[in-house]
Amino acid sequence: MEIMWILLAVVVALGIWLIFTYNGLITLKNQVDEAWSDIDVQLKRRYDLIPNLVATVKGYATHESGTFEKVTQARANAMNAQGAHDKAVAENVLTGALKSLFAVAEAYPELKANENFAKLQDELTDTENKVQASRRFYNGMVRDFNTKLQVFPTNMVGGMLGFIKREFFELDNESERAAPQVQF
């Protein structure tokens, strides 16, 4: 009879542990999903600003149509990308295209002095900062979630409960990781 009580206590303890483990994984999964949603919100804001920025620059630099097409195509690709890796790759291409657009703007002093252009540029800079903060938050949540899935004893049941590792939102271009070279 005593063995039966011990066995029952072990089964109950195991059941309670399983419930807490499952609930902990669900909480982390939802935090990762929320963090991904934060990235989407900031990227949507970025996508909404880009056509206004392109239109403003077009008014001054009509012969730079190749740059405008690259920005527009990169924006469309970024909006349609799925998953953390594909989204990160598309966003890196879009960032490069935007750098080209700003390089075009540098050649037109009257454009740089335009109040609408300056405001859009400031808003885009602010949005870029928010995107970076959202990426850091998302990657932190992914780190916590993946760690929870990989540590003992959660690793024994995480996969059985249907949880899978998440991808980090990382730079794909190695040159963007390197420190910039400044020359005077």
Short description:
With 184 residues, the chain is mostly helical.
Low-confidence stretches: 176-184
Principal-axis shape equals rod-shaped
The computed structural class is mainly alpha
Query: What is CATH's topology name?
Result: de novo design (two linked rop proteins)
Q: Report mean pLDDT, rounded to a whole number.
A: 85
What's the CATH class, please? Mainly Alpha
Description:
The structure is a single chain. This protein has helices at 2-60, 65-80, 84-106, 109-112, 115-150, 154-158, 174-177. It has one domain (13-164): Up-down Bundle (de novo design (two linked rop proteins)), CATH 1.20.1440. Helix 1 runs antiparallel to helix 2 (65-80) and helix 2 (65-80) runs antiparallel to helix 3 (84-106). It contains seven helices and no strands. Helices cover 80% and strands 0% of the residues. With 184 residues, the chain is mainly α.
Strands, helices and their partners?
Blueprint (H helix, E strand, L loop, with lengths): L1 H59 L4 H16 L3 H23 L2 H4 L2 H36 L3 H5 L15 H4 L7
Helix pairs in contact: 1-2, 1-5, 2-3
Q: Key features?
A:
de novo design (two linked rop proteins); 7 helices; 184 residues; rod-shaped; disordered C terminus; mainly alpha
